[in-house]
Amino acid sequence: MTLPSFLRLICLAAIWGGSFLFMRIAAPTFGPAYLIEFRVSFAALALLVTALYLKRSLHFRAHARHYLILGLLNTALPFVLFAYAAQTLTVSTLAILNATAAIWGALIAFFWHRTPLSVKSLIGMVLGICGVIILVGWDQTLVSEALIWPVLAGVLAAVSYGVASNYAKNAPQIAAFDNAHGSMWAAVVWLVPLLPFIPMRAVPDSTEISAVIALGVICTGIAYLLYFRLISDVGAASALSVTFLIPLFGIVWGYQVLDEQVGINTLGGMILVLAGTMLVTGFSPATWQTKRAARAR
């Protein structure tokens, strides 16, 4: 991996870790439906501008069914669930729950595609589940009936990402940029019916409005472009390593900006979740270094 690619990886992890910070700031006022409708709308517009610049046609109608499925499973549903959870949970907790997506993806692949589970994968799943339990079970502020639903929403959001990744295995072969662009517009459509039933809670201030704009343009639109560039430069396997950096930035942003306390349960839960994710995905620093050296030759 070249220095520019490495810097893009760090930048992407910082941006995606920051997405949970921006949701935490804006969700209590905007509510989950309006927050995510604004997020995907800004992202869709940013990707539209990019598509016009690159002279790329989306052909939405030709692949409408695919974009609608992907927009629901990979964008609208998990985004809304995380936004609901962000009204209560800390930035670090949200980021760590997000990292379990690969674990759920492997479990779903076992039932959906009959993909065998290795011993390492099974151990990884157990570690990941234990990590989530430690993350929320040792913190007395989380052990309450009122906060069970936000935690469950965060887990279900990660499950939705796992379902989306399995759907993509048999989905139409469409360019990654077009998938992102089309799924954002599909998410805009999916979220419209929710708006009358989940209204905004108050009039947002300038900080909350800025957070929503950053969430859509930077954390979604620009982040997708960075991610696709990474896949093009270093391959999907190396780009996956961003998954292990996002919780670190989530913890840093929550501590620095919102003064969220980082307890032993947060660090312990994060270590177990990331270790479990590495085992499930087969990713390891040694393997990554070997592939990197081979690519350099």
UniProtKB/TrEMBL annotation:
Keywords: Membrane, Transmembrane, Transmembrane helix. Residues 9-136, 149-281 form the EamA domain. It is found in: Membrane. The keyword Transmembrane helix applies. The chain crosses the membrane at residues 7-27, 33-54, 66-85, 91-112, 119-140, 146-164, 184-203, 209-227, 234-255, 267-288. PANTHER family: AMINO-ACID METABOLITE EFFLUX PUMP-RELATED (PTHR32322:SF9), INNER MEMBRANE TRANSPORTER (PTHR32322). This is DMT family transporter.
